[in-house]
Please model this.
Amino acid sequence: MTLELKGITKRFGTFTANDRINLKIEAGEIHCLLGENGAGKSTMMNVLYGLYQAEEGEILIDGKPQRFQGPGDAMRAGIGMVHQHFMLIPVFTVAENVLLGHERELGGLKGARKAVVELSKRFGFDIDPDALVQDLPVGVQQRVEIIKALSLDARVLVFDEPTAVLTPQETDELMNVMRQLRDDGTAIVFITHKLREVREVADRITVIRLGKIVGSAEPTASSNELASLMVGRDVSLTVDKDDAKFTDKKLEVTVLTVLDRIGQKVVNDVSFEVRGGEVLCIAGVQGNGQTELTEAIIGLEKPASGSISLSGRRLTGKSVREVLDSGVGFVPEDRKVDGLVSEFSVSENIMLDRYKGAPFVKAGTIDFATRNEFAEQAKTDYDVRAQSIHSPAGSLSGGNQQKVVLARELGRKLELFVASQPTRGLDVGSIEFVHKQIIATRDTGIPVVVVSTELDEVIGLADRIAVMYRGGIVGIVPADTDREDLGLMMAGEMPEHLKAAAEEAAA
Amino acid sequence: MSEQLAKQAAPPPPEGEEQVDRSREFMQRLMTGTPMLSVLAVVASLVLGALLIAFTDERVAKTAGYFFARPTDMLQALWDSVAGAYTAMFQGSILNINRIDTLQQALTPVSNTFYYAAPLIIAGLGVAIAFKVGLFNIGGQGQMLVGAAVAGWIGFSVEMPPIIHVTVALIAGIGAAAIWGGIVGLLKARTGAHEVILTIMLNYVAYWALVYALRSPDLLRNPDNNNPITPGMLETAILNPLPGFKVHAGFLIALAVVVLYWWFIERSSLGFQFRTVGLNPAAAKMAGMNVGLITTLAMLFAGAFMGLAGGIQVTGQVTTGFTSHIDAGIGFDAITVALLGRSSPWGTLIAGILFGALKAGGYNMAAAEGVPIDLVLVLQSFIVLFIAAPALVKTIFFLPKGGRK
Model:
């Protein structure tokens, strides 16, 4: 079968998210849609899936025009979707989740169980239909999503950023599944912004930028070529940096344990040291204690035991205010929630954590002139693309919002810099900029901690890499550690041959 | 580049991702609407009010009986009833062309508007400042009663020199009500109890405590009177009206408080923290702000404004002794004032004056045209309704809806 999008245009108000998109998807091939965040990939797929109605254009299946009023129509026409955020009910079994919403088509729970067993045999998934979804690892949950789509005879399967939640090994397995599905005759649409994955698995690549299709590429194209196509200009994907020059400043975390609300150890006996002038990257799949670790450093979480000290001064037990005042710069992982007030202007956000005393406040009154001058300077230095410093931060793109956060946090004298997922959701150009700033901060001689789930970023930035798994640190290894080995560590295994290097790196 | 792209309205977020605190979102929507919407809400309410006036008018009802025989009769009656009522309202609150022989006569309607506006403006700020921190202060009634009782007791029972007396009375009222409001903030910050529940309950506590005090001659009741009413204020504790008018210094106090509020919210460091906590408590925490302290302070300040409004009630509006209804519903009208004014200093000032005008004009309308004063309440309610449903106003006036934000 052939799925064709013809001249699809979707607007939100005056904003055109999709501009006359033409796309042809054939059975038996993996079609990659490559584009930055906000380029319009997801909008396009939501149109295809019936969640949005396009203003112009049409969707054809085997040459016949389709009218999708909702996902139900799309599913009946043979289009399935594996969402970035799983649409599963954790307390239901696999079979119940597959059944959900398709009770009649599948013929009740019995039919659903049969479908699960058959499909997982066919693709070698090894999934127990009666297992509770909440007990399954993330990678397996994703397979439940795939089975759910296939059980309705999906002939086109859309994967929306499927690898964001997976370890490298799980990603490899997913790619194998995709190839298998392709060979089985399913058409696969793979939405991503990760160049490595595209080059590995795609049969055809379509690049989308600013809501328009800007071209297609061969899977043999180099990462740099693909990135340039995606961004629209030449970009450098590697981080240029000199060797670390150590200083006397030091962040020491000693047997730190943090409990969550129900008393489980979310950070488990974590110890490490970061010297001034180096970047320690904390790698790991999301949700393995990284968030709680950074929150403990900044003072938001009270550790159950252990200590954190910065150049000999204790940070544990201090309030967030006191930690910030002792010279800690912090980029929170969710900038929209924790890093910015989106209704506030850029200049108000610039003073967000410096609301007391010099330089912005005099005698309890905000000194607008000083603040605005500082904001204008920051806007220039950090190349924040905003209409003015008075524009609300919420109207800026993700990259520019992150620049505002960076400008604020790096705008004062720091003793320690902690950045959590500093480039999540940013476009390639902004990532380049943020990385440069992080390295420049390191080169001022302070310790820098970067938490990231992106291996490329970790390898590019780090002087040393600590891998976290289930709240503990699996090992601290040099930056030139093999990607495969890091992947194993992210799944909790410490490769034998790395142990010597790890001991050296941890020292 | 994607920067320009995202400068325009961002597309709606992918479904199922964000969990929003709905009440907070609703409150933010109430606060962030444009002034234009406020104006349109008032216009729409006046139109609805006009319909109410017309269809409850006796002559309209009578002429409607032979509408098809002589339609002009009914149309004339319609026009007469609506125009008459609104003209009377205008004459009572702004200017009466027929009575401008002396300057005093010409200024009387406006001065009455200011007279009624003073406590409304101040109480409006008591709701507005809580809104700024994301709190809904429904406790205006209780806070005003506490403020009025304390200010009033000092006003009628303690002897002091002029000016000092009234100042001390007002400050004592402010302090008492600030504590009354602050309790709510403290409980909210410490235990997470919801401020709406707390303020409503404290309204009852304050009301019945006052009723009790008014029954006991040892506390507030006038020993020379069997009714639950206090003695009149001493001469020294009264905000004296301008000779020939009802308006007194309370209006000037209200203006000063608006300026203070403006400075606090827009310029001060503490006000910046207030706004940050109100818009995004997570970011406030991350920026090192003490969210619990700010919450407590916000309710304390809210109570302080209400206490001042209560104090003005006893020292300026009703100086001959007060009952348990001394708040005159202003604690609740204040919510409408703050909503209509979008919690901004100037917006609240204008909304307070508008409501003052509705009150002043309403009395005149009732006297001159026989339209019940309750119409004013209905108008106020419609205004709240329209402000709470901006989409409705936009539909009525054919404004573009705009996407989700």
Q: What stands out?
A: Chain B touches chain A through 39 residues (CB under 8 Å). DSSP finds 17 helices and no strands in chain B.
